[in-house]
Amino acid sequence: MGVDTGKKLMKKILFIAFIWMSGISCTKSVYLFTGFHEPANAGLRLLYSYDGYKWKDLDTIFLRPMVGDKIMRDPSIVQGPDGIFHLVWTCAWKGNTGFGYASSPDLIHWSKEQVIDVMKNEPTTVNVWAPEIFYDDVGKQYIIIWASTIPFRFPKGEEDEDNNHRMYYTTIKDLPNGQADFKTFSEAKLFYDPGFSVIDCQILKRGKNDYVLILKDNTRHERDIKVAFGSAPLGPYSKASDAFTPPFTEGPTVEKVGDDYLIYFDQYKDKIYGAVKTKDFKAFTNITKEVSVPEGQKHGTIFKVNKKVLKKLLKVSTDK
Questions:
Q1: Kind and range of the H or E run holding 56
Q2: Around Cβ 45, how many Cβ atoms within 10 Å?
Q3: Cα–Cα nearest to 211, from 190, 234, 194
Q4: CA angle 268-64-320, nearest 5°?
Q5: What does the pLDDT average to over 84-107?
Q6: What tens digit of pLDDT does each residue of 283-294 get?
Q7: Per-residue model confidence (pLDDT) at position 22
Q8: Which of 66, 64, 59, 58 is nearest to 44 (CA)?
Q9: Alpha-carbon span 212 to 232, nearest angstrom
Q10: What span, in angstroms and rounded, lies between the C-alpha atoms of 48 and 56?
């Protein structure tokens, strides 16, 4: 290779690197992934990613659980139209009728934690698991869904009476100033009964009057991920699809990356995170070997934030 040819090649490589780096720097938003590590008593952890495929751990506890049984499982975050982040989580395994809640302007400084006692009118409730928070931009309200077991309420099926879950919901309306007080909640109502024990649901809006519900079939012979479809965030939703993940998978979370929807799930028997991609939620391609999720990550939710938010989180992580 001649000197001139070598110089041209080097310039080409530098130009490509510059364009690639410029593309990253011009991206206004990045992905965050909430999570926790077992035994779930440490608190909220966050992963970050620029492309939705490769994740890095901020390796910092951003909020320590102080309510319920002082555990934090299944943390779910949504950023409201006012910029405030709202966090809900499982705060006890059993024997409780509520979930944990806190809010933050920056994911660093948090409000006082509280337990939202959503199932207080159902005293035989066994548990409140994996709350997921969703902002309904049409109804101008927050929707929180979760799984609970009320013994003898539904046909027993394969599950014991204390493990026969259905999905419930509550809503919080925006106030005239565009903020919700998270103090006045609607009465808990049944959200989804697919005819089997169901947990770990997430609502996704694809377009006008077009919603997808990602869910875990928790029956013993399944324990896998399925989807259902509806024309409104509160449903009604269709019959659940066939499974598109292996058995022993749970905690699905979905985010749009380019033209694809990526669905991550905790492949807990194998102690890894799996993932599939889809364009229509009918055909799925397994991309587990294409993604990288740090070891120890457990059941969380993916959401997008401005890069300025991540910059502050990285500083906290570095300064710890």
A1: strand 56-57
A2: 24
A3: 234
A4: 100
A5: 97
A6: 999 999 999 999
A7: 37
A8: 64
A9: 9
A10: 5
pTM of structure: 0.91
d(CA 267, CA 264): 9
Residues in the chain, total: 320
What residues does each domain of the chain span?
29-319
Residue with tokens 């950023």: 79
Q: Is 98 exposed, middle or buried (0-12, 13-18, 19+ CB in 10 A)?
A: buried
CA distance 78 to 179: 14
- Residue 289 token pair: 């070997």
According to CATH, the topology of domain 29-319 is Tachylectin-2; Chain A (2.115.10)
Alpha helices (H) along the chain: 3-26, 307-319
How are the residues of the chain apportioned to helix, strand and coil, as percentages rounded to the nearest 5? 15, 40, 45
Strand partners, 104: 85
Give the CA-trace dihedral at 301, 95, 168, 281, to 10 degrees.
40
Give the number of other Cβ atoms within 10 Å of residue 317's Cβ: 16
Tell me the C-alpha distance between 239 and 27, whole Å. Answer: 38
